[in-house]
Amino acid sequence: MGIISAFLEFLEKLGGKTLEVAEVPVRKIPERGVSIKERLEYLKQMREQIEEEKAKEEEKLIEETIEWREKVIEKTPLSERIAEGFLKYFRGPVESLSKSIKGLEIDLYRANITMSKEKYVALMLAVGIIVSLMSLAFAIIIYLPWDLAILLAFLGFILGFFYMRIYPKLVWRRRVEEVERALPYVLRHMASLLSAGVGIAEAMVSVAKADYGVISEEFQMIVQDMHKGASFEDALSRFEERMASDNVVKVTKQILRAIKFGGNLADILYKMADEFAFEYRIKLMDYVQKINGLSFVYMFMSVVMPTLLIVAILAGSLLAKRLVITISGLVVLMLFAFPMLSVIMIIMIKRAEPR
Q: What is the pLDDT of residue 72?
């Protein structure tokens, strides 16, 4: 009975396979009882069907290609695509220029920018050219003379290029500020886990998985370094090198000292957290006092000075019976000079903010 049932099952599968093959349409021209005109008609229909299938396959291939390109574009940032495109056509000058720029690798490493040095130099040049073209277009719109327009375009290139040069340092400083601001919370987090009997490595993994912003990213990098074979001391040293912060150095030294010579690390972390929080409160009180004076200066420069200037220009023009300043010069003052002063004041206020 077992042999018969197996044979019947084989026949059933064979019949199903036959039905699947039979369902596939087969193009075949009738050979008998059909006139030449009908055969030509069949050939025409077959050719149209083949062309329609080819068109559908091409459309499907194009759609898949577009979807793939969209996924690649979404994953690749615009800045990196611009750098790659610029580096593709100007690799020689970019590589020569990148050799003369010192310290860029360290700045990129501290800012956690994974772009290579050559690619970032290409991005610096591309941004400079874009800013230069925008400055030239603006100069043409406000009808500046060609010599001033070219000068403005050159200044735009210099501004864009050097801004991109200091951009990694700005990113690094912002990351350090965020790390130092989150340190008290992270230290309390680690201290509570250590008090509960969790190891220091597991506590760092917990911080890396938590949502503490930049410091969680840095702790994730520490964990990855240890997974790659680096010792705990080397991983902390790299973290200390990336941050180059006094508070971070203090924390890492205390952790390594407690692990090497013994001691209650949880109590040490609690004390450092309280100390950092107290220092931050003192700095915040000083910042509030400074901001009162800076806000008065900012209001004077952004509101009072432009008004006084317009009144002075009108009065001088009435006395001289002509404009004492050209329209283009007035536009440059109003659209560049005073906004630039306001931006400088905002930067000063921002830089005075306590870490």
A: 45
